[in-house]
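Good day; I would like, with your permission, to put a structural problem before you. A protein sequence and the structure tokens that stand for its backbone fold form the material at issue. I would ask you to consider whether the tokens describe a fold that such a sequence might reasonably adopt. I set the record out below, with my sincere thanks for your time.
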Amino acid sequence: MTTTPGGVCYIIPRRDDIIVGGTDAAHDTNLEVDAQTASEMLARAISLVPQLAGREVLEHKVGLRPARETIRLERVSGQDMTVIAAYGHGGGGVTLSWGTAQRVVELLDAPAQATHQ
């Protein structure tokens, strides 16, 4: 994810398509596609990767991405089983997933008393 003059932008290539996105609007719970927002996101992506211009848009989706000031990533004590809290990534969930997963494994492998943060 990067910040362009018009806002945030991410471009995620996949096997059969490319995900283009990027909004950062606090407390926006609208689940309807906003045509202007979609157009602005695509324009930001094209400014970064001009080869996207003229490509077919397969669909638009809207997702809510709960965020916190900081990610919660820690072992939760006092449970009958091992519980790792890992949430609050907001719109950075996809880009942060690998590092978060690595840290979860580290917490699972560490002795319980040594993992409090």
